[in-house]
Amino acid sequence: MRQLTLDSHTALRLLKVSDASQLAQAYLRNREHLSEWEPERADEYFTEAWQAENISQVLAAHQNGLAYPYGLFRGDALVGRFNIASVVRGPFQSGSLGYWVDHNFTGQGLASRAVAALRTEATDSLGLHRLEASTLLHNHASQQVLLKNGFGKIGMAPNYLKIAGRWQDHNLYQAILHDRA
């Protein structure tokens, strides 16, 4: 399984169903930290069983080139999740980037390095032409990660996603990966 090395201790790799326990623990450990940035989650979401089923579903989409679910690992510990999802093939060749980093590891540049690695992977290996991402208007840290990695702001979408229990506006970003045919 391909691994994207960020530094001597940190790498991204495709999630496996066997990562479900660690992923559930990471979500539980970060439940409060992520609550401002994600949809409201039922208690079931934070279980190994729910995460295993979700990973299975996303890996099925991955087999068709439509999703790329990565775990961010510091040593053997899962400390974040990065996804290229909603991949559309054909003339569009586009995917949507989403990510989070464990609250114990924010501010260390991990998100920036991971997004850089995924942008390169999307360009060189996944055959994508465009990556998009969205952030809440007040998520300045994530906006900086995207801007550092060559994403440009393309607008603001009112009431874009239901986050933390209410419909919220989001800034929209994109990176055009190449102009090659």
UniProtKB/TrEMBL annotation:
Gene3D superfamilies: 3.40.630.30
Stretches of the chain forming a coiled coil according to its record: none
Location of the N-acetyltransferase domain: 10-173
Superkingdom per UniProt: Bacteria
Signal peptide location: none
Pfam families named among the record's database cross-references: Acetyltransf_3 (PF13302)
This protein's UniProt keywords: Acyltransferase, Transferase
Alphabetized InterPro entries for the sequence: Acyl_CoA_acyltransferase, GNAT_dom, N-acetyltransferase
Family label: Belongs to the acetyltransferase family. RimJ subfamily.
Protein name: GNAT family N-acetyltransferase
Originating species: Glutamicibacter halophytocola
